[in-house]
Design a protein that fits this description.
CATH topology of one domain: Arc Repressor Mutant, subunit A
Helix content: 55-70%
CATH class of one domain: Mainly Alpha
Largest sheet: 3 strands, antiparallel
Strand order of the largest sheet: 1-3-2
CATH architecture of one domain: Orthogonal Bundle
Order of helices and strands: HEHHEEH
Structural class: mainly alpha
Distance between the termini: 76 Å
Number of helices: 4
Number of strands: 3
Shape: rod-shaped
């Protein structure tokens, strides 16, 4: 069973975005990475330079432009999900209010017709 956290990738991007430069040991300690996460980070993320650009010093890293855009896309998607949930609740509330008003209108008409 995998012991990698669900948002491991996003946590790394947020950390790298917050810090201008960081050392690997500092990253590992600050994020409390387990051994499997450390291995994944070293194997895939550093060597491919997909997310982090190494500066002229080999032990100092920083987030790449592509990494910043990935983080921005994630944050925009998260905000869009929140907005869509709010819009859904507002729409459901409007439907319920409309239904209640229609029922009240019908009941009032029936009540006035039956009034002597």
């Amino acid at each position: 069973m995998s012991s990698i956290r669900k948002d491991f990738y996003i946590e790394l991007l947020k950390y790298a975005n917050k810090k201008n430069e960081f050392i690997l040991n500092e990253l590992f300690e600050d994020l409390n990475l387990n051994q499997e996460e450390k291995n994944l980070f070293c194997e895939r993320l550093i060597h491919s330079k997909l997310l982090f650009d190494s500066t002229s010093k080999s032990d100092i890293f920083m987030i790449s432009i592509k990494g910043r855009f990935k983080l921005l896309e994630h944050e925009e998607l998260t905000e869009a999900r929140i907005s869509s949930k709010q819009a859904k609740y507002i729409a459901i509330s409007a439907i319920i209010i409309s239904a209640l008003l229609a029922i009240c209108s019908i009941l009032l008409q029936v009540f006035h017709r039956n009034k002597p």
